[in-house]
């Protein structure tokens, strides 16, 4: 009756308070075939244990969240951020190798916001490009794609100076498409008048590394970071966006990634069930 | 010592709880030479009284806020919205005529959000364009410029489906530049990677109808509508934006428009003084 679509991937952030063991278990038990992981719960058990647990689960691995946050000027903090990204690249490769056939080695990158006291968006964006350039050899060597994620412009100053898909593709354009792609997350890009054109461009340029879905609804909560909803519960037109992604040639798994206090507080199995139902009703008809 | 720059215009929303009489008085007393008004306080006293008060104040009139909110589908509510916009056009013309020499007849337009239950951004945007088209003859007849204001994308669903300056210019492009221009408000556009290019384009196309300044700072307050700050108190680079506006040929007054509960709660004269100081320190050096 309610078969789970094979392309649904459960992003672990949607059940933020589950540890890795629980996240894998409830995902498998719901009949979901793939999962996107976050660094913290992976590192809580250690990469070796995490990869074995992932293999045992039989799930495909879709993305690792996340790298980035490298907008700092030259100095020790920037070097540390780059080193941390190199570890994230290694984790991504290991997890992709441990996941079931069809897993993808994609590391989602969130650029980072303006450094404390800074106002120079253009300069900060250049530093993002430089940092990615430094990581490309590592990504190529590991067979990992860095997926630059444009974040909604309300996060411009404190989380991400990359705000549009076009801008992410402009940054990616300098680099080998095997190493640098983009993340299309409906929540972050649906408002953009150019989004459909840029999704098509991402396909043409071989950069569409991952597609993530969740919904937008107002009023926004007091913490705007937690304003994501189940697909279908808000105002996003998943039809036009999903068809554009399909037309762009994307055939991979599709993650549902939700930051939302109420959803985090709910029982994990119920969250996975609601996620699958929202995906089935709002997204699957357009695949 | 602390002369107020002659191009500063006090937008009445910055002292939201002042009635028209008080707003004019504290603006004049502070040595500010121009004011942007809002429809509600003008209509509280009636247009005839408002125009006389404005003339008596000796202030220049810079913009009327605001028209728009016409994203509804065909029907009585849409007709009512258009009629209301026609009244706003008449008010704008009357106020501009009543203000001191150098006043400008500019009606700021905020498009409106998605209608209840709607998800079709593209269709909603087309309705905005159609509505503006219906108002152009009225605007031309009255000598009023409709200034389409792109709002930050965090207001996409509930306030404004026009999110970028490029999009506003695309909408304006179909119409006579005497009748349809754009509003450049730093808060709404500073994040846009294309903003400097689009400001230059606005100048080239003769569409830069008004320049408004206020600042962006995080964390955003619980009501994101009230997240505007005095120029200089946040992260916006007023240098690059203001120089772009100057280079685009804009020679008009510059409004400071702030929605902020703390600023609204402060004493009006202190707010005008702080506004003038922020403008002097953050904006004037780039004029």
Describe this protein with a few key phrases.
alpha/beta; homodimer; TIM Barrel; 11 helices; 287 residues; 44% helix
Write up what this structure looks like:
2 copies of one chain form a homodimer. The first copy, chain A, has 287 residues and is of the alpha/beta class. Chain A has one domain: Divalent-metal-dependent TIM barrel enzymes (TIM Barrel, Alpha-Beta Barrel). Chain A is built from 11 helices and 10 strands. In chain A, helix 1 packs parallel to helix 3. The two termini of chain A are 19 Å apart.
CATH class of chain A: Alpha Beta
Major sheet strand order of chain A: 1-2-3-4-5-6-7-10
CATH topology of chain A: TIM Barrel
Helix content bin of chain A? 40-55%
Shape of chain A: globular
Q: How many β-strand runs of chain A?
A: 10
What would you give as the CATH superfamily of chain A? Divalent-metal-dependent TIM barrel enzymes
Mind sketching the topology for me?
The structure is a homodimer of 287-residue chains.
Chain A: E1 8-11, H1 20-29, E2 34-38, H2 39-45, H3 47-57, E3 60-68, H4 76-98, E4 106-110, H5 121-142, E5 145-148, H6 165-172, E6 180-185, H7 186-189, H8 195-204, E7 208-213, E8 215-216, E9 228-229, H9 238-247, E10 254-256, H10 261-265, H11 268-282
Parallel strand pairs in A: 1-2, 1-10, 2-3, 3-4, 4-5, 5-6, 6-7, 7-10
Antiparallel strand pairs in A: 8-9
Helix pairs in contact in A: 1-3, 3-4, 4-5, 8-9
């Amino acid at each position: 009756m309610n078969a789970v679509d094979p392309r649904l991937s459960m992003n672990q952030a949607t059940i933020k308070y589950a540890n890795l063991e629980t996240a894998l278990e409830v995902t498998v038990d719901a009949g979901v075939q793939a999962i996107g992981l976050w660094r913290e719960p992976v590192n809580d058990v250690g990469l070796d244990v995490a990869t074995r647990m992932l293999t045992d689960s039989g799930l495909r691995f879709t993305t690792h969240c996340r790298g980035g946050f490298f907008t700092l000027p030259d100095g020790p903090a920037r070097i540390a951020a780059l080193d941390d990204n190199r570890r994230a690249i290694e984790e991504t490769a290991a997890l992709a190798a441990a996941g079931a056939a069809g897993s993808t080695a994609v590391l989602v990158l969130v650029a980072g916001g303006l450094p404390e006291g800074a106002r120079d968006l253009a300069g900060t964006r250049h530093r993002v490009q430089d940092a990615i350039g430094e990581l490309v050899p590592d990504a190529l060597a590991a067979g990992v794609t860095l997926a630059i994620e444009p974040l909604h412009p309300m996060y411009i100053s404190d989380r991400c100076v990359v705000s549009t898909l076009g801008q992410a593709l402009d940054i990616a354009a300098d680099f080998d498409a095997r190493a640098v792609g983009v993340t299309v997350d409906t929540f972050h890009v649906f408002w953009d008048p150019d989004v459909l054109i840029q999704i098509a461009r991402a396909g043409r340029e071989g950069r569409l590394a991952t597609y993530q879905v969740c919904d937008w609804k107002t009023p926004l909560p007091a913490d705007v970071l937690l304003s994501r909803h189940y697909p279908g519960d808000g105002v996003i037109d998943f039809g036009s966006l999903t068809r554009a992604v399909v037309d762009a040639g994307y055939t991979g798994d599709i993650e549902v990634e939700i930051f939302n206090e109420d959803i985090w507080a709910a029982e994990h199995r119920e969250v996975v069930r609601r996620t699958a139902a929202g995906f089935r009703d709002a997204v699957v008809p357009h695949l």
